[in-house]
Amino acid sequence: MDHVRQITIVGTGLLGASCGLGLRAAGYNGRLVGLSRRPQTAQRAKELGCIDEAGTELAPHARLSQLVIIAIPLRRYEPVLQELAKADHDQLVITDVGSTKQHVCDQARQLLPAPARFVGSHPMAGSEQHGPDAARADLFNAKPCVTTPQPDTDPNALATVESLWTTLKMRLVQMSPQDHDRQVARISHLPHALASLLFELAAKHNSLPLASTGFRDTTRVASGDPTVWLDIFTTNRQAVIESLDAIDQHTAQFRRMLTDQDDDALLELLTRAKQDRDNWIKTLGPQKNS
Amino acid sequence: MDHVRQITIVGTGLLGASCGLGLRAAGYNGRLVGLSRRPQTAQRAKELGCIDEAGTELAPHARLSQLVIIAIPLRRYEPVLQELAKADHDQLVITDVGSTKQHVCDQARQLLPAPARFVGSHPMAGSEQHGPDAARADLFNAKPCVTTPQPDTDPNALATVESLWTTLKMRLVQMSPQDHDRQVARISHLPHALASLLFELAAKHNSLPLASTGFRDTTRVASGDPTVWLDIFTTNRQAVIESLDAIDQHTAQFRRMLTDQDDDALLELLTRAKQDRDNWIKTLGPQKNS
Asked: Is the pLDDT of residue A231 over 90?
């Protein structure tokens, strides 16, 4: 990161502001500029020490930066990429923190003059809280970060982006945008859809008075921000549809075990799921062990 | 509970032993007998003060009891009900703590000479832990307890059983065995099936390295005891099948929103689920608020 003398963070919410705080805590001594739609948000991030300067105009800051981190909702990427296209220079590397990657990489390829210097990232960290006041220097610590370089990605751009995330102590995972989107559909987007649907099924039939901690945990993710999740589902339609079809096959199989009274198969499934999950939980480390 | 001079608890695991401890803590001063398949389990419950006497033979103790609480896995009810049939007397009230009720009520009607004195119960309390060492006097405190009286249930038997659970400070809910089984299918059995299937889908496709706390919580229940859950699914086949069909319709609708690009309907669904869940969470009280 030595050649990166200025970083512009587009969006100073939880993730953007935590990037700034974390970089500072890790000893990064370049300049940190933060931009936000609402001036008071970037101002607050500056007061909290997340950035050195709160700005509003992207192009002038991008011209002076070697790295731009896009940390805004997916539905607001397009004008930002258009603005970056105007300010592009051959030392500029661009990354983002969006939860889906194929759509974003396609947009970058379409809108940027040098898509080889765009590297999609998905730092898998977050919190139920929002805004710069929720920022933490250690938010990304030890969490996985997926980067999605493509065959034509500039190796120097990739090195800069990976160095950003390792400075924030993340565990790097490389995969194609398609693979990323399929994986997160299975472990995040499909579970979110089912949690919302399970909750509405129970609510519709007035079954909630009997629900307790198990149901609370199963459906916790359904309390996530609906606009964030709309962005995720609409930028990952195909992979979510595939995962819905996959779980449909599994529920049909489960249903057949019940109708056919195939109790051996049912016990085998329940036992395997428990064992696989118990083994996985051990890999999460002591704090997350339950 | 004044006329109940002796209670026999069949099964001194977590639930049975907690009944004993809780009754004693609430000032019940009748005799508490606990039975277990493995003599050391009842012996341990006695050492812990959950019961006064550890026994093995059911019939002699049932003859001297006014209340029998069946607190063993569902698959082992049949011989216990047959034994109770031999020891029946007109002051004997029988209840249980099983997680499904139609199957149990049918068994009682078939096997007991006076099914009117059997009242099915489902105290909705538990823990991931097992055995008398995990017992707590306050396990049932403030939790819902469903009783499933039938049209021919003896009102005195119902009063005795309800008095047992209110002594343990439970919130009583009355419903038919069928209604109970449909409700718990929606808020517990279906979510359990989906958690197991989601986990196996992610494991099969090697998606677990990207999974984190959201997926951990969504699938937590899949780590439950497989034999306990086999009992639940096999004694509640019809209601679970109905709930699988219901969620199938909902996932098909969700899939259509994605393929038809009906983003307004998608946002409405996500918003409604979040609002309904946030409202429900408020009803759970401060400790369970998340």
From this structure: yes
